Amino acid sequence: MDRRQFLANSLKTAAVAGLSLDPGRAAIENQRPQEVPGEISRDEIARAQFPDGFLWGMATAAYQVEGAWNEDGKGESIWDRFTHTVGKVKGATTGDVTCDEYHRYREDIGILKQLNQKTYRFSISWPRIQPAGIGSPNMKGIDHYSRFVDALLEANIRPFCTIYHWDLPQALEDRGGWPNRDLAGYYADYAGILAKHLGDRITVWAPFNMPWSFTYMGYGVGAFPPGRANFADFLKAAHTVSLAQGEALRSIKAASSKATVGSAYGMAPAYPKTDSVADRAAAARYHAMNNVFFLEAAMHGRYPKAFVGEPPYELMGVRPGDEKIMLAPLDWVGFHYYNRRIVSDASGAHPTGGGFSGTEIEADPSTGRDPYTRFQAVMPTEGPLTEAGLEIWPHGIYDLVTRISNEYNHPIIEITESGCSYLDAPDDRGRVPDARRTDFFREELAELARAIADGARVRSFHAWSLMDNFEWANGYTERYGLAYVDFRSQKRTIKDSGLWYGRVAAANRLNV
Asked: Mind listing the pLDDT tens digit for each residue in 368-424?
């Protein structure tokens, strides 16, 4: 993921028909920690317990690993178009080949099995199934994923399918993209096709990966495809996705009686900069916009209070009855964790044209990120930084998991992504010693175990990522994999962190 720019994903858009969360209550619950959590002790790691049957897994995304960008009838995606445009990606690289998992998936599933993994979160490429985004399915695409799922099941690995991980068919972008409300129906048709052909074997479905990120980054600030920078387009896209989320759940369940539907949201715990009422309210708006906007829409058919002043319903394209379309209670809740945010109020500042900087944080430091949410969000650097520049803050996963548990009546939770980028390469013995990544996971998982001990119903953890891959606008300049990939030879080498993670999965404990 292009983490520096978008990893604190969460939306803040207003409530349909006046239904909303209470930001004052949320702000009070989200007080800034009084102490800086230090390094996790050996005793805490030794005590960390995970439930019997806990699912250890890894995650990838189609565009980031598959390659084969124009094979077997696949259509063009917006990421194909974007990466083939000069100046959009570091190093002028593309996902045309990347890890070539389209052809090498059996080898990659072999790595998962070797490392004792029980769940693999992958995504399906929409233009590989419907090259134009509508109409009858491309059966070569269906057959590929059918073989892929069969191979996972043969290895005793649960197929966890993300239906949309950002690779919209370019033909649908040409029809207006996600701001076009019609895409909710097109998307529901696509989800139904997948459930019809694969729902006898896939039982775990997440409609969208990080919906706040691709709507805001693609339409609000133009940093990702399709490269638009219009806040109204972002709001319309976000609402279309909320509609599509509900329609897809019903479409999937109509086609497969075995289906369970959840989510793969991006979230970051938000701590107020000070104990002032204004900063607490700003942190609550961040949580509403960037963490639970789509979750609240699904679970309750409404948006949380994310804006200062009157919510821009008309700009969003909200219509009477939309709350019934959005309402689609999830069977489980999934979200990513990478790092935290420190948030302060900007509601008293005078907005100067909205000014977006092209990041998910904020635009003009004097006015906040935008003229509607009016907060300032900062990715702090109090803790150590990864080589991608992200702060390591293990305690954040505890705060995030417990908060979502409390706010949504202790749902089943799946951690759909978490990881770190380090550029460690094979040494002269062919090993990849990456102790920093092992330390990252060890400390974060100790905090996750503590959340479970305190009552959170967490049933899985998916490390990002199975292997180094194409990291969106950062190209190949970041490496998040637990397996090293030589992109010239396509040789995979399991890193020391991956070997450690495999032992953890086998033992169901951290001190291995």
From this structure: 678 889 999 989 999 999 999 999 999 999 999 999 999 999 999 999 999 999 999
- Residue 455: count of CB within 10 angstroms of its CB: 10
Centre a 10 Å sphere on the Cβ of residue 20 and count the other Cβ atoms it contains: 18
pLDDT 10s digits, 317-339: 999 999 999 999 999 999 999 99
Which tens digit of pLDDT belongs to each residue from 46-100? Answer: 999 999 999 999 999 999 999 999 999 999 999 999 999 999 999 999 999 999 9
Judge contact between 100 and 490, C-beta under 8 A: yes
DSSP state of 492: E
Q: Are 80 and 121 in contact (CB under 8 A)?
A: no
Determine the Cα–Cα distance for residues 379 and 4; give it in Å rounded to an integer.
Answer: 9
Amino acid making up residue 421? S
Domains of the chain (ranges plus CATH)?
A: 3-507 (3.20.20.80)
Backbone φ and ψ of 436, nearest 5°: -65, -35
- Please report the pLDDT score of residue 370 as a whole number: 81
| Closest to 221 in 3D by CA, of 209, 211, 233, 210 | 233
SS (H, E, C) 298-347: HHHCCCCCCCCCCCCHHHHCCCCCHHHHHCCCCCCEEEEECCCEEEEECC
3-class state of residue 121 by DSSP: strand
- Whole-prediction pTM: 0.92
Angle at Cα 138 formed by Cα 133 and Cα 144, nearest 5°? 115
pLDDT at position 408 is 98
Burial class (CB in 10 A: 0-12, 13-18, 19+), 40: buried
Side by side, which strands form the sheet with 55-59?
260-261, 204-208, 158-164, 119-123, 55-59, 457-464, 412-417, 333-337, 265-267
